[in-house]
Amino acid sequence: MTAAKATSAEEPLLNLERPRPGVAVLTLNRPAARNALSVAMLDALHKAFAALGADTTVAAIVLAANGPVFSSGHDLKELTAHRADADKGLAFYSEAMTRCSAMMQAIVACPKPVIAAVQGTATAAGCQLVATCDLAIAADSAQFCTPGVNIGLFCSTPMVALSRNVGRKRAMEMLLTGDMLSAADAVEYGLINRAVPAAEVLPQAIALAETIAAKSPLTVAIGKRAFYAQAEMPLSEAYAYAAQVMVDNMMTRDAEEGIGAFLGKRPPEWKGR
């Protein structure tokens, strides 16, 4: 897979590059539309994450975007056009939100870590996309917001990812005011990992992906899955689950190899099993 297209006459919705062994860079490519998440874009992203998740040559994924905006969220022009449908858009809106939620969950379910490389503004479902990624590096000039309240459409689905990444009071402030959040504040809030000069966003995201790609792919997949699973559990249940995950992990070949390599003071040779 190198690109996903809406039609053969259009520019690809997504570009895929492999700048380092084990690293895939997936780039949103609707800059003229502010990288809005049209239904076609949602479907392309969902398919891309499924394909990359199953690709044994990929260990980490960077999600980037072309243009000055990372993503403005749902395609409001597309949504508004369906007001003319016989049901005033009800069926389309239901389908669009369902597909968006499925795509976001595909990122979480993907066994490979996904790192957002945020070069510009991320709003509404675009902010949700950043929050959903496992890690995020942003330009120090980037901004984030959930402005649905300003147009009478509360950012309810972005709220799911946002409230799982930042404190409740801060999430509610973003959701109720729709105000822009600076990159520096996004770091403090826990929405992104770090803010860097714009020219360093993609290189640093790729470097971080490369660092992760050097680890055991099996161990990383086990850890990512366990992280999200335990986060939804009560404390005692989370500890019981995590303890069993560690036992199962200990029985893998890569854990045996990794511990042996550490004790033997040699580099490990990962096999992914």
Automatic annotation (TrEMBL):
Keyword Lipid metabolism listed: yes
GO MF entries: hydro-lyase activity
GO BP term (any one): fatty acid metabolic process
Record keywords, A-Z: Fatty acid metabolism, Lipid metabolism, Lyase, Transit peptide
UniProt xrefs under InterPro entries: ClpP/crotonase-like_dom_sf, Enoyl-CoA_hydra/iso, Enoyl-CoA_hydra_C, Mitochondrial_ECH-domain
Top-rank taxon: Bacteria
Cross-referenced Gene3D superfamilies: 2-enoyl-CoA Hydratase, Chain A, domain 1, Lyase 2-enoyl-coa Hydratase, Chain A, domain 2
Keyword Secreted: no
Family: Belongs to the enoyl-CoA hydratase/isomerase family.
NCBIfam families assigned to the protein according to its UniProt record, in alphabetical order: PRK08139.1
PANTHER family: ENOYL-COA HYDRATASE DOMAIN-CONTAINING PROTEIN 3, MITOCHONDRIAL, PTHR43602
Function, as annotated: May play a role in fatty acid biosynthesis and insulin sensitivity.
Protein name: Enoyl-CoA hydratase domain-containing protein 3, mitochondrial
Organism (species): Hyphomicrobium album
